[in-house]
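Hi V.,

You were right to ask for the full record rather than a summary. Here it is.
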Amino acid sequence: MTRFTFAVLLPGLALIALGCDLNKVDPGGGASSDSVVTVRSGSAASPAAGGDSAAGGGATTAAASGGAPGKLLGTIKFAGSPPVLPPKATQGNAKDPAVCAKDGDIPDESLLVGSDGGLQHVFIYLDKEPAGATAESFEIGVFDQKACIFTSHSFLALAGVEFEVRNSDAAAHNVHTFPQLGAVQNFGMEPNSSTTMSFNKAERAPIQIKCDIHPWMEGWALILDHPYMATTDENGNFELPELPGGSYNVRIWHERGAKNGQLERAKVTIDGETRLDREFPAGDFKL
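Predicted structure:
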């Protein structure tokens, strides 16, 4: 786990803590060193400042005025009965069967719906960093490959900031990214190896990551120049804590969303604890 600590540089500003617990994975050995990044209000939250802004606003930030500071939390649900998706790979028929699907079929994680309808792996994020806001901490998880699955199917990262990439398998993999704005990366990983990587630009929406050696392996990463983002857990819950009071554009995105992934762009006003609960019908998804 890599932790990034942010410092307040303007007087009178409140600290905002954002923990991305959904990306925490078992390191499986080895240690990750802490990194420290300083963020100035209205600039990129990374050494990549000065690059193209994914929000198209450069140093312009979201308006934050009026209302009490609070958190944005909620639940995203799938309405009705979800379809049963076939496995991505079956036991005994996958490449590298001694490692891949050796303990059972590999499920399709592109639509995971809980018993109460909660939808997992939905990205929730602000279009822009709130004006006058500075995050106290932001944790980027290890991007790992275990049993021929990306352990973080939905991953959060900051542009320009390195994080650990690990191959915990006794089989070779490769990490191939498909960005819209940043540089494409495609590198191999030997069995039981580790390296670091970073994304050079923020993106407007999550990007796909694949392993070409094992084509069923895929995940999605959201790379922003600010830390105000989250993904839903297995119950469809999410939380963005300690936002300044004010109005924000919040994007709700899922890989199967029928409109290029976007399910909704909501206008949310933070005035203390604020909820954003949504239930989307099957017609809003590519199924």
